[in-house]
Amino acid sequence: MAGSSSRPRLPAILLSQTALMLLRDVFGEKDLFRDMPRIPTRTVLWGQGSVAVVLPHSAIVVSEETLLSGLRPRRTRDEVGATPQWRVYSSPPLPPESTEQRFGSRMAQASLVELRSEEPGCWVESTEEGRLFLISSGAEAWLLSMGAPTVAQLEQSRLIAQQIERVGGHLGENRGEFPAYPRIASLLAGKCGADEPWLACGTGRLGVRPDLRRRAAHALREAILAAAVIRAIAAGANADQALAHYESRLTAGFQRHLAQCASFYGTGGRNRWWSGELEALERGIGWCAKRMSKFPAFRHRLNGYELEATPDS
């Protein structure tokens, strides 16, 4: 496993019911995170002149450290020290031939906050110069701001500022800032030298909005595909075709993500910040379309956890 990440661990992640069920199924843990705090509603205030809307929600709150600890594999003695056959890039740096494509400039700032109420909940709001995301487990609350600094956005806020009693310290170094713009590696798979194959997954291959409640499910499906590709090649599948399938599937998924973001950013605001981010998203959608045109039609599909050739391939 190659790469390392300096991004601070998130104190709170939303896991949708779909993501939670998928995690339990994959890891065979039917009671996984059953006692974690639940979020019953999501309140959204999006766009100039809009009113807040309370939507039903079904998600749990878990820290990133707790999530990783709960899912970390228990390796057997025989597996320790085994000679690796693949190089998997789960975080930067990537191989020299693969460069990061960035579609936006927004940074996120994470802060621990004190709320006026101890009720668990989730709030999303667009402001003049960015967007705010607030999540509370009841015991702790965490604020994520994207765009202008947190203090400036709270001064513009009509919803989230009303929930906050006090803003505490920032998360991690550099005032808790980390990239929040969509990004993807220009190459997602290949070979090191003549033989050793590699692929990129997780933050090593792309970055998406850090507040997405379905992000864990996307990451898990991506890992399932990566493992299936590796197993298929080990069993004799055409390596070039399998790796091309992996790249095309992930690129297509990233393109859908950009289109979803564009639909929100097109209505979030009308100033230079919003229009600049929207233009970057549209540029990314075009980049994905150009990249996808270089791949052949899908010749493989997932059947459970295994990659198999389609009947007409």
Question: How would you portray this structure in words?
Answer:
It is a single chain. The protein is an alpha+beta fold. It has helices at 17-27, 64-71, 150-156, 215-234, 239-268, 272-292; strands at 13-16, 38-45, 53-62, 87-89, 100-102, 107-115, 121-127, 130-136, 141-147, 164-170, 177-179, 183-185, 189-192, 196-200, 206-207, 300-303, 306-309. Helices cover 31% and strands 29% of the residues. The longest helix has 30 residues, at 239-268.
Question: In summary, what is this structure?
Answer:
By secondary structure, the chain is α+β, with helices and mostly antiparallel strands. The protein has 6 helices and 17 strands. A hairpin with a 4-residue loop joins strand 8 (130-136) and strand 9.
Cα-atom Rg, whole angstroms?
21 Å
Structural class based on helices, strands and sheet pairing: alpha+beta
Strand content: 25-35%
Number of strands: 17
Give the low-pLDDT segments: none
Report the mean per-residue pLDDT as an integer: 82
The backbone outline, from C-alpha atoms, is: globular
Quaternary state reads single chain
Largest sheet: 9 strands, mixed
Helix content: 25-40%
User: What is the CA-CA span between the terminal residues?
Assistant: 32 Å
Order of helices and strands: EHEEHEEEEEEHEEEEEEHHHEE
User: Helical stretch count?
Assistant: 6
